[in-house]
Recover the amino acids of this structure.
């Protein structure tokens, strides 16, 4: 089975901190994605990557950046955390062409 | 971009009942997936079904691409089926899945 692992299940950070959320997949998938999920707003795409060192902005990239130095790892970076970035963050991966998306367990981030 | 709409938004059933969840999409798609979000927040991929019908145990899904909808059927519901069900679609040539708002299913014992 595909395994997508996010580094933390729960995280509490202070306003202004730089925050790293890590995601690792074990299926050699080309595509990787970061979503955030908020009540009433559904899942919104922050960034995605279709290859190493490649990245594309999603629908809500402001305040975030990403890094993909290795195929299996996709990191989401909050440059200066703010309280409105308190959310559930979900990482997903999928192979190129006709792919299924597989999600990690999610990270509940609270910024205080 | 493509719009994905799910109905109903909420569904409450007794254990043993059958249910049908609907997903409408506004444009032609070459990728349609169904997910179940469990109470701990993880999204589990149920089906990849751009067209046709698939079955997996008590769950089955049908996508009629020409009419731009997909249906998820759950038979003999169990309390463990509770959670939020999402469909997500991908337009041809696009690279990002667009999610619907979800259907919250509650199965009471």
């Amino acid at each position: 089975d595909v395994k997508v692992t996010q580094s933390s299940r729960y995280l509490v950070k202070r306003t202004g901190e730089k925050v790293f959320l890590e995601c690792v997949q074990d299926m050699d998938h080309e595509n990787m994605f970061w979503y955030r999920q908020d009540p009433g707003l559904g899942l919104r795409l922050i960034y995605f990557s279709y290859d190493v060192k490649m990245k594309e902005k999603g629908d809500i990239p402001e305040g975030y950046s990403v890094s993909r130095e290795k195929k299996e790892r996709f990191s989401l970076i909050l440059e200066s955390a703010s309280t409105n970035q308190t959310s559930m963050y979900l990482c997903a991966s999928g192979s190129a062409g006709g792919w299924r998306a597989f999600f990690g367990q999610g990270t509940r981030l609270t910024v205080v | 971009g493509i719009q994905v709409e799910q109905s109903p938004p909420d569904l409450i059933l007794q254990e043993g009942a059958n249910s049908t969840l609907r997903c409408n999409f506004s444009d032609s798609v070459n990728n349609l997936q169904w997910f179940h979000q469990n109470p701990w927040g993880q999204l589990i991929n149920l089906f990849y079904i751009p067209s046709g019908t698939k079955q997996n145990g008590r769950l089955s899904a049908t996508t009629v691409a020409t009419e731009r909808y997909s249906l998820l059927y759950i038979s003999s519901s169990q309390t463990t089926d509770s959670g939020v069900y999402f469909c997500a679609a991908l337009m041809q040539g696009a690279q990002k899945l667009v999610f619907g708002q979800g259907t919250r299913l509650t199965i009471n014992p």
Notes: The interface with chain B takes residues 31, 33, 37, 42-43, 45, 48, 50, 56, 58, 88, 90, 92, 98-106, 108 of chain A (CB under 8 Å). The longest strand of chain A covers residues 31-38.
